[in-house]
Amino acid sequence: MPALTLPTLVRTSVRTGAGRAVEIITGVERRRRWRLEEKLRIVAEAEEPGANLTEVARRHDVSRALLWNWRRQVRNGELALPTTAQFLPVQMVAEAPAMPAEPLALPRRQPAVAGDAVIEIGLPDGTTVRVGRDVGAVALRRVLGALRG
């Protein structure tokens, strides 16, 4: 007698008081999870001219009823690959604009007066942000948060 393993199904017939036989099947459920691509490939095979639905179902070890449901879902648009791809218009440029030979000169800073305490932040695009000494902590946090994006 072979050893019982977890995937082994055990069938037992039991008679009820009314004389009816009831079959009890215990064991691990054999239920396969099908990926969307697999479902669509199998449905496409079943839709080919001259294809036999029963043979396609048997070849892929799927029930005819499930294959029939997949076919209906494809026809109703309920079973399809997601169409999230979006295209943007592209323009081709013959040549890139020429870069200046010399870097742009930055404006000279004004000499600071002893009473003028200023925080100066230079951004990569050339913009300069200056904040006075009497700026509040909340306002400074807002400015720094805006710079961080």
UniProtKB/TrEMBL annotation:
<dbReference type="GO" id="GO:0043565">
    <property type="term" value="F:sequence-specific DNA binding"/>
</dbReference>
<dbReference type="InterPro" id="IPR002514">
    <property type="entry name" value="Transposase_8"/>
</dbReference>
<dbReference type="Pfam" id="PF01527">
    <property type="entry name" value="HTH_Tnp_1"/>
</dbReference>
<dbReference type="GO" id="GO:0006313">
    <property type="term" value="P:DNA transposition"/>
</dbReference>
<comment type="similarity">
    <text>Belongs to the transposase 8 family.</text>
</comment>
<dbReference type="InterPro" id="IPR036388">
    <property type="entry name" value="WH-like_DNA-bd_sf"/>
</dbReference>
<dbReference type="InterPro" id="IPR010921">
    <property type="entry name" value="Trp_repressor/repl_initiator"/>
</dbReference>
<dbReference type="GO" id="GO:0004803">
    <property type="term" value="F:transposase activity"/>
</dbReference>
<protein>
    <submittedName>
        <fullName>Transposase</fullName>
    </submittedName>
</protein>
